[in-house]
TrEMBL record:
SUPFAM superfamilies: Protein prenylyltransferase. Belongs to the protein prenyltransferase subunit alpha family. Its cofactor is Mg(2+). It is an enzyme of class 2 (transferase). This is Protein farnesyltransferase/geranylgeranyltransferase type-1 subunit alpha.
Length: 319
């Protein structure tokens, strides 16, 4: 990239330099010479709201130097839409940026803006997201974008097999557990408010879904009892049922027998059982489960477990 000041294409533009606070700024930002010049030209064209091919190229240069500059992304999107550019080509260009900077929020927001003006899902989009998850299976920005994509193009039915494949590869992938919950239940929610409509939403869940999810989650716990994600998922399903945890008591006791302290296989089962016993008003057993957590199986959160014990009327577990 040569200097803009040497280009005949830009000779009609008077660049606007950054004002850092006068000729002797207290804390001037140390930009590179190329970046400072490009931004000076961007300020000038934005001042007159120019949207053209040359400005589109300018935004590309700046993004290559600083892909986190959200103002440039917003202006680029405006140019693309006003000039009615090929948005699939924009996605292809965006892929190269996303691979290099996959944790950059602005890239994924821009992708969502572009995709919101794309009437059909490009055939390469899902495979590209799989490529991104291969780099980082727990990338929050990619997951957020994928959930938006599912809503945008109603991909509910094809997503469940995909998320199951992810959990088969890594049952501890908490992002995949979160996505499973979204796929199973979010189709019954308000897409504008993104919140469950309480009983109205739950009443629309197809018969057998709750039971299927309970069995799936129990099988995942059997594979990795010390994995917190499915325990949390199980609690959520029980809340969907509108029932207590007592019905899963015998299942949880497989992993935490209070009479055999050395054979506890899951601290999360102890936590689960503490709530089960509290529901049954078996406060001694609930307090014992919490005592084991505070003293032996999760002492780093001793203060939390002690607080739970105090709510049952027990003294704190000592150091």
């Amino acid at each position: 990239m040569g200097k803009y000041s040497d280009s005949a294409e830009w000779e009609d533009i008077v660049p606007i330099s950054q004002d850092d606070g006068g000729p002797n700024p207290l804390a001037a930002i140390a930009y590179t010479e190329d970046y400072s010049e490009a931004m000076s030209y961007l300020r000038a064209v934005m001042a007159v709201d120019e949207k053209s091919d040359r400005v589109l190229g300018l935004t590309e240069d700046i993004i290559q130097m600083n892909p986190a500059h959200y103002t440039v992304w917003l202006y680029r999107a405006d140019i693309l839409l006003e000039l009615q550019k090929n948005l699939v080509q924009e996605l292809e260009w965006l892929n190269t940026i996303a691979i290099k900077h996959h944790k950059n929020f602005q890239i994924w927001h821009h992708r969502q803006v572009i995709m919101s003006h794309t009437p059909t899902l490009p055939s390469s989009e899902i495979s590209f997201l799989a490529r991104m998850f291969a780099k980082d299976a727990k990338n929050y920005h990619v997951w957020s974008y994928r959930q938006w994509l599912v809503r945008r193009f109603s991909l509910w039915d094809s997503e469940l097999p995909y998320v199951e494949s992810l959990l088969q590869s890594d049952v501890r992938n908490n992002s995949a557990w979160n996505h499973r919950w979204f796929i199973v239940f979010a189709r019954y929610t308000d897409p504008e408010k993104h919140s469950i409509k309480n009983n109205d939403a739950d009443s629309q869940v197809e018969p057998g879904i709750i039971e299927r999810e309970i069995e799936y989650t129990k099988a995942a716990i059997l594979m990795a009892p010390q994995n917190q994600s499915p325990w949390n998922y199980l609690r959520g399903i029980v809340r969907k049922q509108g029932k207590g945890l007592v019905g899963l008591k015998s299942f949880a006791e497989q992993f935490a027998n209070l009479e055999k302290e050395d054979e506890v296989r899951s601290s999360h089962a102890l936590d689960f059982l503490a709530d089960v016993y509290a529901e049954e008003e078996e406060n001694e057993l609930s307090g014992k489960a919490l005592e084991l957590l505070a003293r032996r199986y999760d002492p780093i959160r001793k203060n939390y477990w002690n607080y739970r014990r105090s709510m049952l009327g027990f003294e704190q577990v000592g150091a």
